[in-house]
Design brief:
Blueprint: E1 2-4, E2 7-9, H1 26-43, H2 72-75, H3 84-98, E3 104-108, E4 116-119, E5 122-126, E6 132-136, H4 137-147, H5 159-173, H6 179-203, H7 208-223
Antiparallel strand pairs: 1-2, 3-6, 4-5
Length: about 230
Amino acid sequence: MDGVGSLAVHAEEYRPGGEVLRGDSPDVAERYAEVFALLMAGLADVRVAPPLPNPRWARWDHADPGLWPSIAVLDERDQRAVPAHVVETAARVRARLRASGLPCVLGHADFEAQNLRWRGGEVWAVHDWDSLAWQPEAALAGAASGTFAGAGPPTLAPIESSAAFLAAYEEIRGRRFTAEEREIAWAASLWTAAHNARWEALHGDAPVCGDAVRAQAAERLRRGNA
């Protein structure tokens, strides 16, 4: 990876084939956490200008007016369609994340099953490297702990699977998160789901993430001290 003007340019090896590893159980979560930890370790040595702005679904750190980042395709729709519980969850999550002073690092911000391929039980390829973000490590890991199972329409993993993901991630990275980092990870695990729940509502889609946010927000917010 290198910088060219205002762009971060990267080259990838073409690795066709492989299968999607499906499932959202704790044991599957641990396998994805191992991959994410190895990616983050590799990215730690990459030196480029921060690839900002962050991807729209991860952009809780935006400087736009209002709660959500400015995205025309969403902003032009009737916002009254977005359920109140989604808006409240997003507001609490964003406030908690913005209150943190943790340093930012480079990380993969679209870590979903559909973007990985496996062969013989081992990871074969990780795609979608144009979705890099510049955020605290705990926020990136937390977001991945919520999105890793996405093999089709966006979803939110079960709470126990996110917990397994984060525990495995810390183990493989060889460093336990601080109490602050754990809170940030749990808060960040909700932001992408809230963004996707808003998208669903504004497009009249089935509330897959919307229902998951309704069911899981209270516990994830509690763990995130949000």
